[in-house]
Amino acid sequence: MLRLLISPFLLFFFLISPALSEGQTITGPDVEINGGDIHVSFSLALEKKNIQEIRDGIDKELKYYVDLFRVWRIWPDEFVSGIFFTRTLRVDPIKKEYVATSFDGKVLIERRFRSFESMLKWVLSVKDLKLADISKLDPGEYFVRVTAESKIRKLPPVIGHFLIFISENEFKRVKDSAIFEIESSR
Length: 186
Description:
Distance between the termini: 67 Å
Radius of gyration: 20 Å
Number of strands: 10
Helix content: 10-25%
Mean pLDDT: 82
Strand content: over 45%
Number of helices: 4
């Protein structure tokens, strides 16, 4: 009896959940300490389906979260600081226009590109992002977590409030850096 009851719910769940996409991967994050600052570099690779959608003129919005955590052996890891920014891709296949924006909550940068590939390279890779000043950090072990996500554009925003089990993300990828140590700078 229980099996008959659970089966329709599982079928319903799998039908409404977005397909699992394994094509998106984060390369890095690579952490460097230069001049007393922590710098992070990483890149995101999209699967061919997403790239073709963008090439066909469907706007794509990517959200990046770059967070610094302190490692604690007994307690959960401690969030220290983080940066959030959004990058948007717009392609007009008829006019051959390639426009990308980056917005961090304060500054909006809009760039126009001559080629689709150069736009993708700028939007999907982050080089030497200044994350934190090590003089303001306590000695200990730390790591950087990079999260990249893309929202589904097909669902109305209200759906998530009523049907909480439906994912609003097209994909969400998380990757941690290797653990590094900050020694006392005082």
